[in-house]
Amino acid sequence: MYVAGKAAEGSKSPVSLPDAYDASRRGNPLINALTTISGNAAGGETTKAEEEGAPGCAGRRSVVQFRTLGEEDTALLLKRCRSEGVTVSNALGSAAALTASDFIGLEEGEEEDAGKVDEDNRRNYKILQSLDMRRYESEPYADDASTVGCHAGSMDLMIGPLGDGSGSSLRSGSSRGPPSLFWDVARDGRAQTAAFVDDDGRGPKEAVRVFDAAMRISDMNNLVHLTAMSEASQGRAYSAGVTNVGVYERQGAVRREGSRGRERGTLKSKHGNYEIEDLFFATSHARTGCLYQVSCLTINGKLSLTFHPASPLVPEETNAAFADAFVDLLATVAESEKTGTETIHDEDSSIFASLPSLPEGALTNAALAAGVGGILIHAGAWSEFIGNVLSMKENIADPADFWAALNFWIFFAVGHPILQPILWISDVLHGTPGPQIADLVPVLFLAGNALVIGAVASSKEIQKAVNVAALAAFFAYVGAGLDGQAGMGDFNLQLNDQYKGAVVKGCPTYDQVRQPSMDNFDLEKYQGKWYEQKFHDWTQFKEVYDTTLDIKLTEDGMGWIDDFAVKGPAPKAAALSWDKSPVANGAHYFLFGRVDPNDAPGVLRESGFGVEFPNYIVDVQKDDKTGEYTEAIQFQCLERGGVRVFEGINFMSRNPTMTEDELGAMHGRAEKAGMYPYGAGPEQMHSVERRPIDAPPLDNSWQRMWHAIGFDALLELLAESIEDGGR
């Protein structure tokens, strides 16, 4: 449930960067998350010089403002909090969200418009609320300042949606009147905190367990570094953050040596002739953390507040204005206790206000529910996958080897689901009837796109629902791949997957699959063009066709280059658009490897995406007259830490087409080689679609357009540069 709650938070798209930050640098949240998971900084690494800020903080540094809420106002605030049924921490969280609404929408150099609420810009705010969970621990682990404990140190509050300027409207006493909104937000924060803490302790425990799992599965330090250096996120994960230590004089003091068994005393602000008049504290958020951050402590009856965001995201002058507005808001709601102002629960100002025609969050929640259902269908497969990843990580000594293998898997696991909507949109484009612009794009398609984009742009609710639906569809599709339900030939993603109900672990040795036909194998004769007939391989896509492999050795015979040529999409994969694609007439990709003299003849070493794995030539057939190789079965297998990450099987021929009998014979030889458990069965392989060998190049208005803009020349240049770089 904790993980599901975190996913639901993301669906609300809380704001974490000011509008003054260039929107073009932020990117798409889903793409940003996938980029970080794959081991790269979202939006690229920031170009800010390190010397401009603190070390490792991408040019950012802390700026600090100190403020104090007077003794009288602090006492009034506490009294009002008690009458409203909330804590001072709840009130501080409310003040953080409402004050953030006054500043987060300002453009560079713009000042807040006091008293004006912009209901057209309603945003959700994610507040990082620090927690002291030690007080909730039970014996024998209760905190007595003598043991080390692992606790949830914070929780997220999701507040909103709030219109821009909501805080200033309360401070100015505008038409929104008494501070009902302030206390609505505070009560919402209290309810969220209670749900997290009071549910038999499950919230904090699950948070610690999830963090522990993340530390074991992923390189958490590297993920934090990537987030800190990200041009898209600037290390910001929260709209604002609040830490409230409480009353200094009520904090338990540490026992001194020799005092075990005695009651713990409390901290003192007076020590003999010396007295602590004010005390401020802060922790840096320059590297990662909150956009706005305030740390609070009550001492001598006064609330001391430190405002310490990261500059230049929040410049010094903006931080000063934020601090003034925050304290002014606290004083306003505190003094309402003294003046006896009545709290009015205005329906329009409530954070639970509904959209005019649709309950707030209805579309998003519906998309989330459907997405969670789609993921839960494959829960067993996800559990098996995570278990295999943990096993692999535990058994690999070098973390770099673990991440190289996992990133190899992630790259292709992500690529397949991303391709599906592209093909669907392409077929919609080319299947739309009516007149066309330049014989390329139907007018009706453009009009439909304008309507859809306009609807999405006009409603943040629709935007959130679309993002949630896209993310849910992505994970459901990957889950289907783990479950073997999304195409066994090209998307069988499970690690150490099963065959006939039994788990098949790791990779076989070459001797276990090598066939007698490989006796006296001649690698020189293996060179040349091969037509791929069938494959079981998630590094390939079932949507392509006319696949060929042109293999040649380097001059010294110690390396090899595979010119992997494809066309796509295939006519069956995209019936309406296949001939309009920029690669409909072909594209070339080059794979590289080496010939290790210590390997048996028939074993090639293949490299790509940071990993190297063996490519076994398992079986070859010869022409009776010439002795040339006419058919071949290849088997690639990547194993790390006892876990099979990838297996690839290729049925190849020198002829463009093969009869069913010839293919059946290849399956028979693969079965004899013991390759069926690894995906060589007929039901586990994808047949490559082919056009007639003498079919002319495609020529239509779209192909002429690609040629006119030089896309085909770009593909050729790219292929040549890759080939030259791999020699």
Q: Using the coordinates above, name the CATH class of the largest domain.
A: Alpha Beta
Q: In which order are the strands of the major sheet placed?
A: 15-16-17-18-19-20-21-22
Number of strands: 23
Oligomeric category: single chain
Output the CATH homologous superfamily of the largest domain.
Nonribosomal peptide synthetase, condensation domain
Average pLDDT works out at 85
Q: Summarize the amount of helix as a percent range.
A: 25-40%
What is the CA-atom radius of gyration, in angstroms? 32 Å
Q: How would you characterize the largest beta sheet?
A: 8 strands, antiparallel, barrel
Write the CATH architecture name of the largest domain: 2-Layer Sandwich
Low-confidence stretches: 174-178, 342-356
Strand content: 15-25%
What does this structure look like?
- This protein is an alpha+beta fold and 727 residues long.
- 38% of the residues lie in helices and 21% in strands.
- β19 (603-608) and β20 form a beta hairpin.
- The protein is elongated and about 105 Å long.
- Mean pLDDT is 85; it is low at 174-178 and 342-356.
- InterPro entries: Alcohol_O-acetyltransferase (IPR052058), Calycin (IPR012674).
- Keywords: Membrane, Transmembrane, Transmembrane helix.
